[in-house]
Amino acid sequence: MPPVDPRSVPPGAYGNWPGLNQTGELRVDRARLRAIAKRLESDLEEIIEATEDLQRANSMPDQAYGTWDAARNLVSSIVKGRSVLAEQHDAFLVDALQAIKMLRRTAQVYDDVESELERRVMAVRMELENAPVPSSDPSPRATDHPRSGPGSLR
Description:
Keywords: Coiled coil. Residues 1-20, 128-154 are annotated as: Disordered. Residues 30-57 form a coiled coil. By secondary structure, the protein is an all-alpha fold. The protein is built from 3 helices and no strands. The longest helix is centred in the middle third of the chain and has 38 residues, at 69-106. It starts with 29 loop residues before the first helix and ends in a 25-residue tail after the last helix. The model is unreliable at 137-147 (pLDDT under 50).
């Protein structure tokens, strides 16, 4: 960010903006950014571990919900819900990894942790993509279509 001429704004205006000094230059607390990235990495680890539970739920046979009429009618909703959940899980993994990368670059941290996380996220994404689709769902998986927007559930 180029320096801002302090005479071009009212006196004291910069004093009200956290992270800016009196000349208008941005101050970055690299230690704080590293701590935030580390915390997000820890949270991402938990999400990666939760993938196993998601896959177990996705592989549950349709008969597990019951064989009576009401249960059979409910299965298509469950299948769609599981598909959307897997799609959102995948999107979160990608977005969290991107946020970690940006935080680490801004904090000027360079090491192998990022590449290891990226490898693990890609492995989980491949597992989710290759997960078997239940036979009762004739429609394509929700991940076959691009997301309609950030956080979109369609």
